[in-house]
Design brief:
The structure is a homodimer. The first copy, chain A, has 3 domains: about 140 residues, Probable tRNA modification gtpase trme, domain 1 (Gyrase A, domain 2, 2-Layer Sandwich), CATH 3.30.1360.120; about 80 residues, Alpha-Beta Plaits; about 120 residues, Probable tRNA modification gtpase trme, domain 1 (Gyrase A, domain 2, 2-Layer Sandwich). Chain A is α+β, with helices and mostly antiparallel strands. Chains A and B meet through strand 1, helix 1, strand 2, strand 3 and helix 4 of A and strand 1, helix 1, strand 2, strand 3 and helix 4 of B. Strand 1 of chain A pairs parallel with strand 2 of chain B.
Chain lengths: ~375, ~375
């Protein structure tokens, strides 16, 4: 069983879109950055195929922003990530692991440059605001650090571009991946980027105040009727199939970017002031485990091993060689897929790896997010 | 409706007690520090009366610890709180708001001194580890900051002391409030403190490794059979009745300790090096709103106004004067109770305050945690 009842309180924040999400018949949530994030509307499979064929509007307001604003904003952003941010254009975003001085990952946001002295970290699930705040105080940086009133709404699926163009105009066609424009809706300017946590294409709209949230939602539905628009959410099956990692699930604060296969998002030779760069340079050649994709034979039911145990051990001949981190059925490949952190000793042969008594031949699925994250 | 389905993944961590919690028939969870925290077993009312009359074992592993260890541990702890920690005895805990340089609250942990160079911050729901880490790096402090493998288990209710003594020995009777001892269970030493998030009395056991978690749980149930022990959890009705605040719900990062009535946990005249003390000295006389308890006439059903809206406005003659932060029915007083942040202009008269069209005479309930937190 993979779901239980969720008690709601003000601490588990609703979003400006929650009313419509409820009306659209949301069936389940997770909690992400202390906020409700929908996880299912009809069934995992119906949600999946609809996303692959049509267009969905996702309440991803839980993808909170940390705003860095002031003369030292760029300096603070660079301190937190080993990725070189100097070549970031205005209104461009970059996938950038946030690491501490030992090289462990705290988050993997998209860092968006709004101006030379203004950045957003579009967060995965941890309070990076507190890290940024601590650094800003400790280093006496001239920068404001805060969570702005910005509520991302994603439009995802093959018909997303058409729908977003109908609402924001034809200029959206020219927006490249991880780039954005300031576009207007009912007189309110907002950042609209080609991005999103699916491989089906689409946009994220950074809604800058709660008052405009429902009007925008409603217009997307009015103009998308013939495109079969409906409410959706990040789809676990699709994202694992697509090789998109989830911070906290697939990787955590005990992992380094190398172990998670994020090597290409590090600029270890760049002459930048980053907290983690020295530790990462030292660690890069001593990796003993790596995050990989697994595809299982047959149709094992992995949901039991995820029944509130937070993962499961992987065994070869009774010896632990790694741990399962997330899993889902692939509707496209008709296979059980998973992400697992595995000792590198076992990576080069096709050993039969057991999960709780279920055997599988392991091999990598194309989980590397290279093509999606630039 | 106040509950929905919760999707579970490794990101929403299970605890070493989750297996027993499930077997005990948990009905709902919340997510707290990225971890499952049970919220209901039978009904709110059954859970409430049982807690007030017998003894419950609570899986509060989600009350994560931040450990500060090293020569600068005490310095770092003091930087984060305006409460004077110098007089803290070893194995004593103090309720201590964590504030930034502007005096806003980031968390309200119990800070426990384990040794002169070793502290635990026993957290409410936010990643204070990242704040501590940022400060340690920025100030170049000689201190380790990490989340230790410690999983608190609470034993609460009028018969808690008897049960804990049966398991850990008669010395527990001598433990004073917010004090603790290192006691042994099956050869494993652990910190046992007289504390917990209820007004019914009890202890918190800081279980130092997952292997001992289920054996300890089982012994508590074996030895507590005649005390009518059962699995429980923080009870929203009891905690509001008792005046215990919830960080993130009743107070958040846009509030100061003064606004939340936490004046007595600040040592503004102490000669301590604390980030927030200067800002708090300046802000203490300019408070324009305050967190208070409300008791409503009649039996208004407030659950609707909390239906994913994250609070509700309070009105006097149509003008907004504050916002509701949490609410629950008091089974003892037979009244609807709530915490609300209200403009101080409206505090001194018994104006009729409306909530979404429901009227109420406002007055304070004894929510100040003075007597519980020392």
């Amino acid at each position: 069983m993979n779901s239980k009842s969720l008690s709601v309180s003000r601490r588990v924040r609703a979003t400006p879109f929650s009313k419509r999400v409820e009306q659209a018949g949301v069936q389940a949530y997770t909690v992400y950055n202390h906020m409700l994030l929908p996880t299912q509307f009809k069934s995992a499979e119906e949600d999946y195929w609809h996303l692959c064929e049509h267009v969905q509007v996702w309440d991803v307001a839980a993808e909170r922003q940390v705003e860095l604003k002031g003369p030292d904003a760029a300096k603070l952003a660079q301190l937190m990530t080993p990725r070189d941010l100097r070549r970031l254009d205005t209104l461009q975003g970059k996938y950038a692991p946030i690491c501490d001085e030992q090289g462990f990952i705290f988050n993997d946001p998209i860092i968006i440059k709004l101006a030379d002295d203004r950045f957003w970290l579009s967060l995965a699930d941890s309070d990076v605001r507190l890290f940024a705040k601590g650094l800003a105080i400790g280093y006496e940086l001239n920068v404001e650090v805060f969570e702005p009133e910005v509520y991302p709404l994603a439009v995802q699926g093959p018909k997303a571009e058409e729908l977003v163009a109908r609402v924001f105009g034809e200029s959206v066609h020219a927006i490249r991946f991880f780039r954005g424009e300031i576009l207007s809706f009912e007189g309110v300017d907002m950042y609209v980027a080609r991005s999103g946590w699916s491989k089906q294409g689409g946009f994220e709209i950074y809604v800058p105040n709660p008052e405009i949230a429902l009007p925008l939602w409603d217009v997307l539905f009015e103009k998308g009727r013939d495109l079969h628009v409906r409410a959706g959410c990040p789809n676990c099956n699709e994202r694992i199939e697509a090789g998109l990692l989830s911070y906290g699930g697939d990787m955590d604060a005990f992992d380094t970017p190398f172990e998670c296969g994020l090597d290409s998002y590090l600029d270890l030779n760049a002459d930048i002031e980053s907290l983690s760069i020295q530790a990462l340079r030292e660690k890069q050649h001593t990796i003993t485990r790596r995050l990989v994709g697994l595809a299982f034979h047959g149709e094992p039911n992995l949901s039991d091993v995820f029944n509130y145990v937070g993962g499961a051990d992987l065994l070869v001949n009774g010896k632990k060689v790694g741990e399962l981190r997330s899993q889902a059925w692939s509707f496209k490949f008709n296979k059980q897929l998973a992400f697992a952190m595995i000792d590198t000793d076992y990576l080069d042969n096709n050993d039969c790896i057991e999960v709780d008594g279920m055997s599988s031949i392991f091999h990598e699925i194309p989980f590397n997010p290279d093509k999606l994250m630039t």
